[in-house]
Amino acid sequence: MKCKIILVVFCLATITLFAQDNTLNLMPVPQSLQTNGSKCRVNKFFTIAIIGNPGDRVYKEASRALRRLDNRMGLFFKQGNIGIKDTSLSATLIVEVKRSANLKLYEDESYNLSCKSTQLKITVNTDLGAIRALETLQQLLSVDNAGYYFPGVEIYDAPRFPWRGLLLDITLHWMPMDVVKRTLDAMAVVKMNVFHLHLTEDQMFGIESKVYPRLTLAGAEGNFYTQQNIKEIIAYADQRGIRVVPEFDVPGHCTAMLKAYPQLASIKREYELQRYFGVFDPALDVTKEYTYAFLDTLFTEMSQLFPDEYFHIGGDENTGKDWERSPAIKAYMQQKGMTTYQQLQTEFISRLLPILQKNGKKMMGWDEILHRGVPHDIMIQSWRGTASVEEAAKKGYTSLLSTGYYIDLIQPTDFHYLVDPVPANTTLTSEQQKLIVGGEATMWTEHVTPETVDSRIWPRTAAIAERLWSAATVKDVDDMYRRLDKINLYLEGVGTTQIKNKGMLLRRLANGYNTTALEVLVDVIEPLKIYERNEGDTMYNVFSPYTKIADVATPDQKVARGFRNIVAAYCLSKDKRKQSLITEKLQLWKKNDAAFKQLIKQSPILQEAANLSTNLFLIATIGMQAINYITTKTSPPKAWKADCLQLTKNATQQGGRCELQVVTAINQLIFTAASKK
Do residues 191 and 163 touch, judged by C-beta distance below 8 A? Predict the structure, then answer.
């Protein structure tokens, strides 16, 4: 009898395994995809051949792709590293490449991918196209009762925008090499191609300079990338078809630089590394010839280190106050007929441009630098609004959108997904639209550490990557979320930590192994959005603990979003199955409060979230009442609606720098119950 039970369980498990959804879950969505009904089976004799004129990059990437596939299937492929001898036309996958690419803006990344019953073929103009196609192939891997296979498809694909970037700040909280590498791996998965490294700030100068060693001796406190580290990052990114663009922020956000070399400062004072986050007054004295000589030497050194054609000089959030405090700078401005500090900054930008140009670089800067007189050879990166992107394009500047892609602000994925660098209602001409080269997600690290940074970048950035790659018409939010759920697991497969670190953070917070009560609460809360976490009586700085409930809570919680969606559908349909699912959640939340209060006794750090748990209990109770009124002939008392809405209003108050994300759904149940005739 025992053996029969085991056999039944095994059979059920097997059925579950092979009954999984094999719908194509590609992200980004290709430009063109047709299915042909065939299946290319995969076994241990799967091989890859490279033909044409590929270059070294594609051999290494194809070898890495082969190992990644085998790691997922465990078939013990016979083929090892792929080299110039692997050209057999009978290979399972043939990759035909016309030339190796120059890693630069506007390079060809298109590809054709054909999957038929006995063979797969990738045909590309450049090895960059091959790299993108190999990522698509990884996502196509499917399974049925007979095992693993690639579905029969004919794909033509190319990016909509040539610049699909991610900014990683490494100065507000230090991000070591392992964070950089797993970020690059994940970027490659979703076909992003620019890694923007923000290297200098008021808190840190994050890169070694051999000509000015005090920049890290005084301005980094031990955490910085050596020049050898940078070469390793660039090589790692190059292998994945990703450009690395450095940012050295001047003339503001430069306290670390001024601590090391105070003779650069506008005001003579003692400079210390900033411990808090925000906008500060220190700025370079841009009227001194010494400043330009210093930057000429520094930027020349860094230009030789970073091969990309673009070089970002920041230019953002210079308050101008230190310039106003300096009699010498004010006298200089009067002599030049300048009436605003923006005019002085424009002169500064104009004098930096030839320094970069002689080093073969093109300048980039944030949209604050867009003022009358700024040379047109500069790319403008917008963070303050979409209007500045359009303004830049209308004035003939190449521009890049980051507004709407600030992933550190904890906004939901669909918000980012529906932001377009060139929206459908644009007033720009076709020629002006061409000047907008794409967009960049931005990961500022005020409130993240290496343990939590992935949960803020992924998986939401995959949706931004799709916006920048796929056709403008690809904007079905429900389908995006369906595919995002799949891609989240796939991203973890290349090393990201947003899923696995959650369990570790929960155990730490719970001070034990039993995290159930904490997890139930965390599933329906999110950290405060925009910059609200900085408000109130807690002043965060570089030494603050980022191990609290706001750090384990993540943006765009799936459980909370799902509950809101199902409540919205139920209020329209009164479907009994949806009602059952809603009731199940409400009962869980009611029961959880007592368990969470017990958990606080063994982990007092959770006390700050006690009000969230209490409020979840109260609104779950209200939700149960509403369901009862909706499903019976009984109408609620006259005062019930007002009393309930007061309770839900109270439930919007933050706790532990987090907010409940199911209050609007409870309100919807209240209104539905109260409107019952």
Answer: no
Distance between CA 133 and CA 126 in Å, rounded? 11
Look at the block and give the residue holding tokens 């439930």: 651
DSSP for residue 252: S
Q: Which two three-digit tokens encode residue 72? A: 């997922």
317 is catalytic: yes
Q: 475, exposed or middle or buried, with CB in 10 Å at 0-12, 13-18, 19+?
A: middle
Q: What is the C-alpha separation between 317 and 94, in angstroms, rounded? A: 51
- 278 sits in the region (left: phi over 0; alpha: psi -120 to 50; else beta) called left
Catalytic position from the list 317, 451, 519, 532: 317
Q: How far apart are the first and last CA of the chain?
A: 57
Q: DSSP state, 29? A: P
Tell me the pLDDT tens digit for each residue of 77-128: 999 999 999 999 999 999 999 999 999 999 999 999 999 999 999 999 999 9
Q: What is the pLDDT of residues 217-259, one digit of tens each?
A: 999 999 999 999 999 999 999 999 999 999 999 999 999 999 9
H-helix segments, 370-476: 386-394, 413-417, 430-433, 453-457, 460-469
Give the per-residue pLDDT at 123: 98
Distance from C-alpha of 362 to C-alpha of 372, rounded to nearest angstrom? 19
Q: Are strands 362-366 and 147-157 parallel, antiparallel or unpaired?
A: unpaired
Specify the domain boundaries for CATH 3.20.20.80 within the chain: 163-498
Written as six digits, the tokens of 252 are 């503001």
Token match 């092979």: residue? 18
The pLDDT of residue 17: 34
Give all strands (DSSP E) within 13-119, no chain letters: 32-41, 48-52, 93-99, 111-115
CATH of 163-498, one of 3.20.20.80, 3.30.710.10, 3.40.50.300, 3.40.50.360: 3.20.20.80
Instruction: Give CA–CA dist 433/634, Å, rounded.
Output: 59
Contacts of 35 (CB under 8 A, 6+ apart): 151, 152, 153, 154
- Encode burial over 133-146: b for 16+ CB neighbours within 10 A, e otherwise: bbbbbbbbbbeeee
Q: Are the beta carbons of 379 and 396 closer than 8 angstroms?
A: no
In 101-206, DSSP assigns E strands to 111-115, 120-126, 142-144, 147-157, 163-169, 194-198
Contact 378, 395 (CB under 8 A): no
Identify the DSSP state of 49.
E
Q: Name the token pair of 22.
A: 């094999």
Show the tokens assigned to 135: 């990522």
User: Domain 23-157, CATH 3.30.379.10 — does that match?
Assistant: yes
Q: Which residues of 366-393 are buried (b: 16+ CB within 10 A; e: fewer)?
A: bbbbbeeebeeebbbbbbeebebbbbbb
Q: Give dist(CA 119, CA 111) in Å, integer.
A: 17
Q: Which residues, 6 or more positions from 396, have their beta carbon under 8 angstroms from its beta carbon?
A: 376, 435
Is residue 619 packed enough to be buried (19+ CB in 10 Å), middle (13-18) or exposed (0-12)? buried
Structural element, H or E, at residue 525: strand 525-527
pLDDT for residue 311 is more than 50: yes
Q: How far is CA 461 from CA 405, 415, 439, in A?
A: 8, 11, 12
Location of each CATH 3.30.379.10 domain in the chain: 23-157
What is the C-alpha to C-alpha distance for residues 377 and 161, in angstroms, rounded to an integer?
20
CA distance 36 to 151: 8
Pairing of strands 147-157, 142-144: antiparallel
